Amino acid sequence: MSNPSYAPNPKKEPVYTNLQNKTLATVEAKDIQQFTDPTFIQATNQDALITYNTINKAAMRDGLPIPNTSEIIVATCTDSGVAVQVKLPNQGEVWQILNAHISTSGGSGAISHEFYFTDQSNSRSFMWYFLSSSGSNLTLQQDTDWTPPFYMDENLEFTYEATGTFTTCTLSIMMMRIR
């Protein structure tokens, strides 16, 4: 069993030297990942692994919501059947999708609202949410069978597509970064 009070010598860990000009508020996932990604899971790297874990916890990269990262993204469709990008996370990021609102102007009849994830490594798309409605003001958590949370990472591009007769369909979607 390992010693729970053991700590690596910080002067021997290159991550500290290389990130010394960053604060916890300014360090980004890509900054940390440039060190963690090439690290082999080996006994000789135990000190580095302990150090990365410490930094990730301190930077609140622990799977819980990261403070000051929530955002509401707006994506607007003006052409029927044409997808628009909502979000493509940066490297090392994981986002949690919480709620959404769709407002439609100039609509006539039912409009199909489709949310897709597209796998960036093989271009496969997956429709993960569908709603057909003639309503012009929909909050998904209240007005539909929306069951969050949903998650996405850097490998998934999130797109929104509206199909039907309308002038504009605007998706406002609330997200929070968890890693």
What's the overall average pLDDT, rounded? 91
> What fold name stands as the CATH topology of the largest domain?
Jelly Rolls
Which architecture of the largest domain does the CATH hierarchy give at level 2? Sandwich
Strand content: 35-45%
Helices, by number, come to 4
pLDDT < 50 stretches: none
Counting helices, strands and paired strands, the structural category is: alpha+beta
* Highest CATH level, the class of the largest domain: Mainly Beta
Number of strands: 9
Helix percentage range: 10-25%
Largest sheet: 5 strands, antiparallel
For the structure shown, list the relevant keywords:
9 strands, Jelly Rolls, four-stranded antiparallel β-sheet, five-stranded antiparallel β-sheet, 2 domains, 179 residues, alpha+beta, elongated, 17% helix, 4 helices
